[in-house]
Amino acid sequence: MQTEKNAFGSLLGKMIVTKEGKRLGFVKDITFETASGELINILVKDSTPYTNNLNLEKTPSNELLIPYSAIIAISDFVIVSEEDLI
What we know:
- The structure is a single chain.
- By secondary structure, the chain is mainly beta.
- It has helices at about 10, 50, and strands at about 15-20, 25-30, 40-45, 65, 70-75, 75-80.
- Strand 5 (about 70-75) and strand 6 form a beta hairpin.
């Protein structure tokens, strides 16, 4: 079975929402392991007050990170599982 690939540029700027429909912000950037290419986190821009209360990991420059493992689907939105964020 072949998995669908998303180009890096197509993810930037997409709205991030939970599967319950809560808006978290937009994709600013993606971090990955350079040796393996494994995706690690999504950096969030324009985070909502709800997102700020989730106690997410932050970068040294105080940007919020969403673990890539929390992503359920990518289409018009990046859909994440809130349970995997906490």
